[in-house]
Design goal:
The chain has about 625 residues and is of the alpha/beta class. It has 2 domains: about 325 residues, ABC transporter type 1, transmembrane domain (ABC transporter transmembrane region fold); about 200 residues, 3-Layer(aba) Sandwich (Rossmann fold). Helices cover about 65% and strands about 10% of the residues. It is built from 18 helices and 10 strands. Strands 6-7-8-3-9-10 form a 6-stranded mixed beta sheet, with helices on both faces. Strands 2-1-4-5 form a 4-stranded antiparallel beta sheet, covered by helices on one side. A hairpin with a 2-residue loop joins β4 and β5. It is elongated. The two termini are about 70 Å apart.
Length: about 625
């Protein structure tokens, strides 16, 4: 199996532990403010429980020794009752505090997951396709995937560290009184454990979890493929079960290799930690035995100092390990904050021009990341306000790339796209998006009511009557009548048992209804009618063209059903604009467009002529 190496991530930043602590406290204060006083109370009650029984045990044993001489054990009963009451009260308060802390921190984590998802939804399209951004997103997801990682893990770490510091402050005095040299032995062993633990944490993070970020992406992708209805038919009809299973096994082997490495790292840490603990405990017992034999220490004092020394030793080790774990959760918080703080392109910009809109491609070229050839080369093209432009060409000609550039899903590799003379990158991206009503071939439905699938807005902002009119105008009037709840019918069965699935043609008509509802000044149709036959496509295009009235429109297709009613036709081959003019001009020219039109004529030329009469 090939060796997996960590991938560098230019998006990663290091904020520092103190900065991350302040950030985590701010998150909790914002989403679960009642957690902070609960943590203060939990620190006190938890620390009290750590050493309370050591003192109680001493006094009980001393009293038992004293009363054994008289045989009267009655004085023990009040003492035991008081001790039990204190312990029960402290334990009860600590349980209540820990319960509220647990749920409060979980709620805060769920809230920052929402922040992360909102960030992903608002990012520019091109960034979401970049592998380094996908890895950054996966690391941010990992950083809020459990109670002991990321921000929640950092808060739990702070809680434990403060509590442990309080316990050590109390038990330290007892150990110094016993023998100050014992402090040196315990501290040396604990510090050695801490250094080894910190080294293990760092290696585990960089050699396992950072390396696994691309692997988690592969695992998530394979899970989506096996569960997505869009893949179900192909998987079954092409008998892809074994092929997919083989790929999944390969990915899981990568994961298993890293997990084995992690296990070995922590096994080594565990062995080392146990060895250091044995040395510390041996030193404690040695000093105490010497005190009992040589200094006549009472059994009660022996019990007290044994408990306090053991508590100090264990707590110091836990404290130092918590610091090491603190480093790990801080690094995970770095991952989360790095993703959230990724600079958004074009968050601010010029106000959009008012009135008629003209778009100009000026020497625009685009090359996909990692590709050698340009998908679009030196394009000069103008879309005038209120005009219809047909973009035609075979698959792979660069049509969809052109549209993604026009919509600002991509930025040009070379050249510029102008809106009324201004580079479109100077406008705020979210404002620019409002100029377009796009209709794509691959229509995605949401498990929402049909009205919200048209408006693409929350229910309180959706005009149901307008949604119904748009559906009727796009050709889904009869479908609406057949549905039990009309525009309120839930789509898809993912969330609702009575959800309705639409056919391919119905999905594309719904997408046209979305464009009508948005009512943007520019309509873009990127082969949305591929599920229709050529004649039906022509009729739908002509009908839709009448609906959009004086808006600008761009029709993209490798079929030529839209070109006859467009003002201009742009013919693309291999990413280059090879012909440009009206339908009639290009036919008269007898070039590539005319050849393509003649080839397709057998399917719809006669039908188009009849429909035009």
């Amino acid at each position: 199996m090939k060796k997996i190496k960590p991938e560098s991530n230019s998006l990663h930043r290091e904020y520092g532990i103190l900065s991350n602590c302040g950030y985590a406290l701010g998150v909790v204060r914002r989403y679960s403010p009642k957690v902070l006083p609960m943590m203060a109370a939990g620190v006190i009650t938890g620390a009290l429980m750590s050493f309370l029984w050591s003192y109680i045990g001493k006094y009980v044993i001393d009293l038992v020794q004293k009363q054994a001489e008289t045989g009267d054990c009655a004085p023990l009963i009040p003492l035991l009752c008081i001790a039990a009451a204190i312990e029960i009260t402290a334990a009860g308060l600590n349980t209540i505090c820990n319960n509220k802390i647990w749920f409060g921190l979980v709620f805060a984590r769920m809230s920052v997951i929402t922040e992360k998802n909102a960030k992903a939804l608002g990012m520019d399209y091109q960034s979401l396709e970049a592998p380094d951004m996908l890895d950054a997103y996966q690391k941010a997801t990992n950083a809020c995937a459990g109670n002991d990682v990321g921000i929640e893990g950092l808060m739990r770490g702070m809680y434990k560290i403060v509590q442990q510091a309080l316990v050590m402050a109390v038990t330290f005095t007892a150990v110094v009184v016993l023998d100050w040299r014992l402090i040196l032995v315990i501290a040396a062993m604990s510090f050695a454990q801490f250094l080894f633990f910190r080294h293990t944490v760092k290696r585990d993070k960089k050699e396992v979890w950072d390396v696994l970020a691309p692997t988690w992406r592969k695992i998530n992708y394979m899970e989506r493929v096996t569960q997505d209805f869009d893949y179900a038919k192909d998987i079954r009809l092409f008998d892809m079960k074994e092929a997919l299973a083989g790929k999944q096994h390969g990915i899981l082997d990568e994961k298993r290799e890293r997990f084995f490495h992690s296990r070995n790292l922590w096994l080594g840490n565990s062995f080392f930690s146990h060895a250091m603990s044995i040395v510390s405990n041996a030193a404690i017992y040695g000093v105490l035995i010497f005190c009992v034999v040589g200094q006549n220490m009472s059994i009660g004092d022996f019990t007290l100092y044994l408990g306090l020394s053991g508590t100090f030793s264990a707590t110091l080790t836990e404290f130092l390990n918590s610091l090491g774990g603190f480093r790990k959760t801080s690094m995970e918080t770095d991952d989360f904050r790095s993703f959230l703080d990724t600079a958004e392109k074009y968050e601010t910009g010029l106000p959009l021009p008012e009135g008629r809109l003209t778009f100009e491609f000026r020497h625009v070229s685009y090359r996909y990341k990692g590709a050698e050839d340009y998908a679009l080369k030196d394009l000069n093209l103008t879309l005038e306000a209120g005009r219809r432009l047909a973009i035609v060409g075979m698959n792979g000609a660069g049509k969809t790339t052109l549209i993604k550039l026009l919509l600002r899903l991509y930025d040009p590799t070379e050249g510029e796209i102008l809106l009324n003379g201004t580079d479109i990158r100077k406008f705020r991206r979210s404002d620019y998006y409002r100029l377009f009503s796009p209709v794509f071939q691959d229509v995605k439905l949401f498990a929402f009511p049909m009205s919200e699938n048209v408006s693409m807005l929350p229910p309180e902002s959706t005009d149901r009557n307008l949604a119904q009119k748009c559906l009727e105008r796009s050709g889904l009037g009869e479908k609406l009548k057949s549905l039990p709840d009309g525009v309120d019918t839930q789509l898809l069965k993912v969330l609702y048992d009575d959800g309705v699935d639409l056919s391919g043609g119905e999905k594309q008509k719904l997408a046209l209804a979305r464009a009508l509802y948005k009512n943007a000044p520019v309509v873009v149709l990127d082969e949305p009618t591929a599920a229709l036959d050529p004649l039906a496509e022509y009729e739908l295009y002509r009908s839709f063209d009448g609906m959009i009235q004086d808006k600008s429109a761009v029709y993209i297709s490798h079929r030529l059903s839209s070109t006859r009613f467009c003002d201009k036709v742009a013919m693309f081959i291999g990413g280059e604009l090879v012909e440009y003019g009206t339908h009639e001009e290009l036919l008269a020219k007898g070039g590539e467009y005319a050849k393509m039109f003649e080839i397709q004529a057998q399917y719809y030329k006669e039908g188009c002529a009849n429909a035009a009469e």
